[in-house]
């Protein structure tokens, strides 16, 4: 609790059944209260802006904006908001992307009944939560990079480019993307051209495969 009040939680997942299950886990705890839900990343960002929340629990893979993209936007707008990523993917890339996006923890859906409450409480205390199986990968990655004097690499694409790729892969036209992101059609086309050049690709089909491979959309 914060100041004797339950932690106010925003829960975002595009599967209503998953949201219901996660909410049941959280609502059993007297120090938590789910005050808002969202079915995609863009809705989650909007809800975080309109409702007072202390903690956002975001699914990694969601329509319109992924959980990672939503986390980046929330972190930028509300630096004090705590964020946890909820994922079905036991994947180093997603784990490190979550940390870069501003999340303080990464919880696997398969063990949410075991880990989620502890992860939420750690986030409220401003402490990181790392699911047990990730410790080995995390330590190996950082030790190896530190030994070489390296840092974790930035994503190949910028945050805005990733948003454009995601929407292209979901079948949106340039005009629709421009409306969703509140940018011009010309800017959308420029982002698309830059992405194709960066990735060495030619068309929407290749971009869609890239979006699936990197978790921007689900197959």
Instruction: Provide the domain count.
Output: 2
Computed CA radius of gyration, to the nearest angstrom:
18 Å
Query: What's the tally of helices?
Result: 10
Per CATH, the architecture of the largest domain is: 3-Layer(aba) Sandwich
Which percent range describes the beta-strand content? Answer: 5-15%
Gap from first CA to last CA: 39 Å
Task: Tell me the structural class.
Answer: alpha/beta
Number of strands: 6
State the CATH superfamily name of the largest domain. Answer: Response regulator
The amount of helix comes to 40-55%
CATH class of the largest domain: Alpha Beta
Assembly type of the chains comes to: single chain
> Unreliable segments (pLDDT under 50, ≥5 consecutive)?
none
Task: Explain how this protein is built.
The protein has a six-stranded parallel sheet with strand order 2-1-3-4-5-6, sandwiched between helices. The chain folds into two domains: 138 residues, Rossmann fold; 55 residues, Winged helix-like DNA-binding domain superfamily/Winged helix DNA-binding domain (Arc Repressor Mutant, subunit A), CATH 1.10.10.10. 52% of the residues lie in helices and 14% in strands. The protein is globular and about 55 Å long. Helix 3 packs parallel to helix 4, helix 7 packs across helix 10 and helix 8 packs across helix 9. By secondary structure, it is an alpha/beta fold.
